[in-house]
Amino acid sequence: MMLLAAAALFVVLVILGIPIAMVFLAIAGFWIVMEPAVMDVAVAQRLVAGTQSFPLLAIPLFILAGELMNTSGITRRVMTFALLLTRRLTGGLAKTNVILSTLLSGMSGSANGDAAMQSKILVPQMTARGYPKPYSAALTASSALIAPLIPPGISLILFGFVTDTSIGALFAGAILPGLLLSVVLLLLVHVTAKRNRWDGPDKAPPLQRLGPAFLGALPAILMPVLIIVGIRGGIFTPSEAGGLAVAYTLVFMLIYREASLSGLLAALRSTISTTAAILLVLAASAAFTWVLTFERVPQAVGEALLATASDPLSMMLLISCILLIAGMIVEGTALILVLAPMFMPVATSLGIDPVQFGIVFVFMIHLGGITPPVGTVMFTTCAITGVSVPSFARAVVPFIAAFLFTAALLIFIPSLSTWLARF
Amino acid sequence: MNAVRALARGLDRLVFALCAILTIAMVILVVVAVGMRYVAGAPLVYSYDLSTLLFAWLVFLGLSLAERDRAHLAVDLIDAALPAGAAKALRVARQLLLVALSLYLCWIGWKLAQRAGMTIPSMRISIRWLYASLPVGFLLLGLSQLFGIFAGSSAPEQRTEAGA
Amino acid sequence: QTTIRFAHMNSPTHFVNSVGTDMAERISERTDGAVKVEMFPSGQLGENAQITEQIALGGDLIGQVGPGTIANYVPDFGIIVYPFLYPDFDAARRLLASDLIKEIEAKAEAEHNIKVLCYFAFGIRDLYTRDRPVRVPGDMAGLKMRVQPVTIYTEMVKQVFGAAPTPMPWPEVYSALAQGVIDAGEAPPAAILDQKHYEHAKYLIRTNHILDLSSVVMSASLFNGLSDENQAIVQEEADAACDAMSETAISGYESQVAELAEKGMTVISDIDRAQFVERAAGIAAAFPEWSEGLYDKARAVIDGDRK
Ligand code: NA
Ligand code: NA
Fold first, then answer.
1. Residues with Cβ < 8 Å from A416, sequence gap 6 or more?
2. Nearest to A341, CA basis, from A304, A295, A309, A293
3. Which whole-number Å values give the CA distances from A157 to A147, A153, A416, B127, in the listed order?
4. Half-sphere exposure (Cβ direction) of A116: Cα atoms closer than 13 Å
């Protein structure tokens, strides 16, 4: 009864546009009033406790590193390199979009950050070269989903945090799936551009040689390698890697001397706002989940899942479908925080590898970011490019098909996710 | 009206300055901890607890900045679907509900800080130093939400990028 | 009907959870369902410090938490897990039953709503090193040793082992050992097995440096609200549960040491324990918040029978 009332309240508040974290807290408050055993001070304690973990420090640190990368001039150099790399290909600029996301994902942990940046700098150029704007927006949003997969990725940190899975192993395991997604998108772009005769090869002599351009992009390309080797080698923890990533970008900022004080302040401001917003969702869901656990809801959900599917493969498919549908409505971060601790014991009890499960989980909830009606990456891209949600929705369909294809590969071939995590 | 805006802006600047200091302190603390482990062979025992304490203050103080930057993750489909007048009424009602919720959270956070009796062992300070971040942060968030009613409507274009 | 939530941080298959489940069933049976106990393993309701805090704030809980956590409220509790304090488990029983400890418990109950139901041996902690045999404190010179970031442990490493304390989260220890970021660690043998640390540590030294006593605690207001009859039932069943858990932990210890030897660790038993015990006396100085002469009083209780 209580549960049904809470679920109804949840839907109503989300639709009214209450921020998702405040919806969680409102429901926790509802429970405090209705059930005397749930103490208000205990909910307050969970809210603070939700922020009290050293691995979570990695989140602001990696966001700051990503922001500074744009300010420092690293992004501009990577872009020059990506453009040179694809200029002789059909659909060169669309491929640049994918390659840029892949190369920069080693410094950016969030799909939204990647989508916002490329919506600003690449979509106008693509429009000028004759790509339909909804297509450019859909491509930018879709390729942005590579960013959270190639380390560092904030979703992977959060998943590791709430399920007690090694963040280093998740980072290592997600590299191949990230690259696989990149290749699948490149193939899709190639076929589409060829068929529509968009953006033919550039025959003019290049303005810059590939070698020096590669050197300019190298700091960004090396970043995930340094992070993975450092964490997996036991040299530093994920949070410390975040601190070192900030220091690393600061070094290049000093070398390139392109950053201004106002740029630095803007990077700090954006880091703080984004961190506070993400961590409030995390802390609120910690309080919310605590209330649910107190009332033994996750235990019941786990039993129901196990009763529905009893072998690893059908469980993976079942959970993926749940995540796909939930991801269309609820924001991804909240899904990781609430559902991952509920689903993880079920998955491991069937012998599913925690790393593979984590990567498929993170992959599926990010897919929700580009699907209507609710998708944060979609909103970001549409807002900046001025494409309407319905035309975005039509253009994004082939990309969603490509994602589902990649997801199927990840589900049916566990070693794609687990192979690199073994080292 | 202008006075309210000036007050909102002043408060925002002050909180941003505090958060910027906290962020920089955290970066330094984390990097120094690695250095101490390798160079001196003896890391600071309290570095974990101190950095998570700073982090809590960063997060809860940052809430009001995120509110001003419209970075809190929400679904704003209904606003676009409603006629302008109704959307405005909904927005004011929503902000008022949020202010009430923030003040309630400020209140229970205050109660927790009042009643908590634990000592943080590594630093030998009361856990109240940690819990105080909750009432302070939600009080500032409530103010920021209240100021938001006067600031007028802003289109979704002004929403800054947030989320993972 | 009263519902008590029993929270702890161990996995659902750990003996604390299985013994706790048995206890819950018997309490429900003996009180005719008037007192119901539900298990919340795996830190579902929070970590030890937070569970203890929820109890202190008046939550209807039972928790399995170490005396080190309760020491955050009443510092004197720290003495219970003092390194090299007990020659054997009987000595620990003597101290726990003494007036010295009863007074400390009364303070926790009156001032912080924390009622200790019973104590049990959670594990016996030993030292292990990558490649250095250790028999006397001096053998540890120059080594980096992983510790929990807790004063009693860092002081023990500094003062007793003479090594450099390196605080580090538990899941990171395996790769730190593999890489030589640390040279030594300390844990109960069960944990060394569980995390496969034996793959990168050659020596297990049976220092038995800390008898890891833990306790089952309950919200005092909840306990006092029960009928006298039900209070007695809860107390009796908790005592029985603690005895069962102690037995599981102690009987498991020897077989786990044997298993580590089988996995290739060299087990060293002939340490000069007296030298370690003597050095350990200095740790008390790091706790100015303890009552005057607490360590000497505890030593007197423990040594009493043998003199
Ligand atoms: Na892109
Ligand atoms: Na990334």
1. A176, A177, A180, A409, A410
2. A293
3. 13, 6, 19, 26
4. 20
How far apart are the C-alpha atoms of A334 and A338, rounded to whole Å?
A: 6
Q: Pick from B59, B68, B53: which is nearest to B144 by CA?
A: B68
Contact call for C149 and B122, based on CB within 8 A: yes
Per-domain residue ranges of chain A? 15-202+209-422
B43 C-beta neighbours (distance < 10 Å), count: 21
Over residues C62-80, the pLDDT tens digits come to: 999 999 899 999 999 999 9
Q: C-alpha C259: how far from its chain's center?
A: 22
DSSP state of C286: G
Q: Which residues, listed in sequence order, are joined to residue C124 by a DSSP beta bridge?
A: C211
CA–CA gap between residue C123 and residue C153 (Å, rounded): 16
A288: nearest Cα among A339, A328, A327, A347? A339
- Among A73, A63, A126, A77, smallest CA distance to A97 is for A126
Give chain B's length.
Answer: 164
**Amino acid, single-letter form, for residue C219:** S
Q: Does B45 touch chain C (CB under 8 A)?
A: yes
Q: Is the preceding omega at residue B156 within 30 degrees of 0, hence cis?
A: no
CA atoms of C2 and B164, how far apart (whole Å)? 43
Among A14, A23, A47, A119, the residue to mutate for chain B (most B Cβ within 10 A): A47
pLDDT tens per residue across span A258-267: 888 998 999 9
- The alpha helices in A122-234, defined as continuous H runs, are 123-128, 133-144, 154-163, 167-196, 210-232
pTM score, whole prediction: 0.85
Q: CB within 5 A of ion ligand 1: which residues?
A: A 97, 101, 118, 140, 143
Q: How confident is the model at residue B154 (pLDDT cuts 50, 70, 90)?
A: very low
Residue A242 CA to residue A87 CA, distance in Å, equals 34
CB A417 within 8 A of CB A357: no
Considering only CA atoms, which of A34, A53, A65 is closest in space to residue A267? Answer: A65
Place of tokens 């923030």: B102
**Residue from the list B30, B74, B97 with its beta carbon closest to the beta carbon of A61:** B30
**pLDDT score for A361:** 94
The two three-digit tokens of residue A254, written as one number: 């000093």
Work out the end-to-end distance of chain A between its first and last CA atoms, rounded to an integer number of angstroms. 49
Q: Which tokens in the block code for residue A168? A: 């280093």
**Contact between residue A22 and residue B101 where contact means Cβ atoms under 8 Å apart:** yes
* Lowest-confidence segment of A34-38, A166-170, B40-44 by average pLDDT: B40-44
Q: Could you tell me which chains touch chain A, where touching means 3 or more CB pairs under 8 A?
A: B, C
C134 φ/ψ angles, rounded to the nearest 5 degrees: -130, 130
| Residue C187 host element (H or E) | strand C184-187
A69-86 pLDDT, tens per residue? 888 888 888 878 877 877
CA distance A154 to chain B (A): 6
**Residues linked to residue C6 through DSSP beta bridges, in sequence order:** C39, C62
Dist. CA C202–CA C66, nearest whole Å: 30
d(CA C62, CA C17): 12
A151 Cα to the center of ligand 2, angstroms: 4
